[in-house]
Amino acid sequence: MSLSYTAQNSGAWQTYLTQIDRVTPYLDADLGNFINTLKRPKRTLIVDVPIVMDDGTIRHFEGYRVQHNLSRGPGKGGIRYHHDVELNEVMALSAWMTIKTAVLNLPFGGAKGGVRVNPKELSPRELERLTRRFTSEISSIIGPQIDIPAPDVGTNANIMGWMMDTYSSIKGHTVTGVVTGKPVHLGGSLGRVRATGRGVFVTGLEVAKRINLPVAGSKVAVQGFGNVGNEAAYLFSQAGAKVVCVQDHTGTIFNAEGFNVKALQKHVAEHGGVMGFVDATVITDEAFWDVDMDILIPAALEGQITVERAQKLKAKIVLEGANGPTYPEADDVFVSRNITVVPDVICNAGGVTVSYFEWVQDMASYFWSEDEINERLDKLMIQAMGDVWNTAAQKECSLRTAAYILACERILKARKERGIFPG
Ligand code: NAD
């Protein structure tokens, strides 16, 4: 990718603040009075994470947990392991979680965490030590009724298992509900791993139907072929769409006839990236944005869609699998070009929705089947997508602003009705 990740993500919090400024004129004055509550995180913890490396040396890593807003319930949000993680980015990601849980009307606030580390450079034992020490450092502000972490970029179910075990050791008893996205045999939920990609697909279908774009035969391009991107690509291919272009950290591949997504998943599992896949033409990373496509799924990292890229993009629908992939100025270009953007705060909310189901199942110690999970997930996503679509039509605004209107009304109403302590 030609844009540097660090340069792009350092503006993530600014992007979020611009989004809040854009929604403010749509809010009733009595709620608008509380808008500043969304412009700063409630609580921010920066921790030093020292670990003993396999060679006996000691290395220090910097970690964060940010609780952006807790007005509607415990904090909820993932833990990112990436070598460019920084506070500004974690703050933005936590704020987007506040909006996301409210758009889906889940009883949570928003939080996010991260450690500045390249997990691929650590051995499995080092990764475990890092995870356990980080969990111990943030243990005073997490808990099933306080703040519930989950996986994000660079973390996975195994890491959530270690987090749950470490927290449980500190508490002296098993506390499954402290994290979601755990392995199924440790209180995880069926359907969680694929939930975010599934939500991208479900919201995509809803919008395609409304703009009369037949999904069968449509051309799809996906940036990022990890947890989110690969499942979304698979479901679109199953629905008859052609996945014509895929980009990941190893490069960009193209096939006008559409890839065999199952075979590509297998290749990525074996080789760690899309490069080297058969039946593919390698194109430059920047050429990704020129490809003839109907649907774009950014599913890698934030800060990818600039004004220049938005101006030349051929897609009719953008499904934001990633968090914060589009700059506010690029959003304006999409509005003027009549390109429909399904914003991250609803498009990729499938993961947090099934995380909510996992938390509910852990609380009850009673587990549902995968069909039940998917049925409930589809129902909530379709309902929320319909609400956002209708709000956009009513207020004559973009889907992003509509999602923010719905979310901010719910959050600020909760804030107002709780009152400001000590009154
Ligand atoms: P992942 O680590 O499984 O996959 C990330 C993908 O992005 C990989 O294919 C990687 O190769 C690619 N990538 C990384 N750097 C890249 C670069 N410079 N250029 C092109 N591709 C690059 O992560 P994920 O869980 O799939 O998350 C992807 C995005 O979706 C993130 O923005 C994340 O916050 C968001 N998200 C994830 C979930 C979830 O449940 N996993 C939920 C909501 C939002």
UniProtKB/TrEMBL annotation:
The keyword NAD applies. Substrate binds at K76, K100, S355. NAD(+) binds at T196, N227. CDD domains: NAD_bind_1_Glu_DH. It catalyses: L-glutamate + NADP(+) + H2O = 2-oxoglutarate + NH4(+) + NADPH + H(+). The keyword Cell membrane does not apply. Residues 189-419 form the Glutamate/phenylalanine/leucine/valine/L-tryptophan dehydrogenase C-terminal domain. Keywords: NAD, Nucleotide-binding, Oxidoreductase. Pfam families: ELFV_dehydrog, ELFV_dehydrog_N. InterPro entries: Aminoacid_DH-like_N_sf (IPR046346), Glu/Leu/Phe/Val/Trp_DH (IPR006095), Glu/Leu/Phe/Val/Trp_DH_C (IPR006096), Glu/Leu/Phe/Val/Trp_DH_dimer (IPR006097), Glu/Leu/Phe/Val_DH_AS (IPR033524), Glu_DH (IPR014362), NAD(P)-bd_dom_sf (IPR036291), NAD_bind_Glu_DH (IPR033922). One of its GO terms (biological process) is L-glutamate catabolic process. The active site is at K112 (proton donor). Catalyzes the reversible oxidative deamination of glutamate to alpha-ketoglutarate and ammonia. This is Glutamate dehydrogenase. The lineage of its organism: Bacteria, Pseudomonadati, Pseudomonadota, Gammaproteobacteria, Moraxellales.
